[in-house]
Amino acid sequence: MAAKIVESADVDSSAIIGDGSSIWHLAQVRDGVTIGKNCIVGRGAYIGSGVRLGDNCKIQNYALVYEPAELGNGVFIGPAAVLTNDQFPRAVNIDGSIKSGSDWQAVGVKIGDGASIGARAVCIAPISIGAWALVAAGAVVAKDVPNFALVVGVPAKRVGWVGRAGQPLVSIGDNKFRCPVTNSIYQEVSPNVLEELLN
Q: Contacts by 6-9 with C-beta closer than 8 Å and gap 24+?
């Protein structure tokens, strides 16, 4: 199925939009963007130059994904969430002249497969968000987030683990955790490393 791009969306001609993807009202997709199959880019969302999205991603309304962000497959970006790209933001140089693209170096946020970024969360580049991690709504993430981590607050801190279903895992002792939805078992192999055990 071909991509659906509504008339009010602003999609650069060089952007690659995968089959089955939808770009909704007032969204802007810049030059060089690659969006995989079956993705949804919501109303008013912004996807910066050269950003790469895997398949089955969902970018909710008014989310801002600045270059050079890279999103894996199945990534969720909540409403009004922001992925930044400037470590030392200034509108002007020290001489007062307006900054141009050559006056700074963009850095990106990298998000692993299946991870979710909650509404109005801010991810401050350069960081990596691990696969299947969950960033709570309103969190400000300034450090890398491990796979399966649940992080909350300002600044964001890990408060637990989540499974592939996105719900907090339940401790069953011996550094093992169970998903209340799938009954899958996970093991904490070190303080910031969780692995899914194969059945």
A: 9/41
User: Is the alpha carbon torsion for 168, 146, 72, 107 positive or negative?
Assistant: positive
How high is the pLDDT of residue 39? 98
Would you give the distance in Å from CA 159 to the centre of its chain? 19
The rounded distance, in Å, linking the Cα atoms of 135 and 144 is: 11
Q: Whole-prediction pTM value? A: 0.95
Count of the separate structural domains present in the chain? 2
Same-domain pairing of 132 and 183? no
Q: Are residues 79 and 167 in the same domain?
A: no
Task: Tell me the pLDDT tens digit for each residue of 49-93.
Answer: 999 999 999 999 999 999 999 999 999 999 999 999 999 999 999
Domain enclosing residue 198, as ranges: 163-199
Same domain, 118 and 198: no
Task: Kindly state whether residues 85 and 172 are assigned to the same domain.
Answer: no
Q: Is the dihedral of CA 156, 115, 88, 28 positive or negative?
A: negative
Q: Which residues of the chain have pLDDT under 70?
A: 199
